[in-house]
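Below is how a single chain appears once it has passed through the pipeline. First comes the sequence as given, then the structure the pipeline wrote out for it. We keep one example in the README because the format questions we get most often are answered faster by looking than by reading.
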Amino acid sequence: VGRKQRVQAKDIVGAIAGEAGISGKLVGTIDIYDKYTFVEVPKANAKKVLEKLKNVKIKGNKINIEKANKKNK
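Resulting structure:
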């Protein structure tokens, strides 16, 4: 999901906190593009977030969640 679905950072944080049961304060950078979004979560919580958000909808849109590749610095 992304800008075209009118998703905002608060929607992403709410879904992660509500479904994965982790504090929204642990969610890092959120980059929202037209059709997709990148979200940083602590490595210790990543597996749980991936598992718990598999069948979740955000603003009525089913999401496709997967681990991103590392950024090149």
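The CA atoms of residues 7 and 33 lie 10 Å apart.

See the next section for the split statistics.
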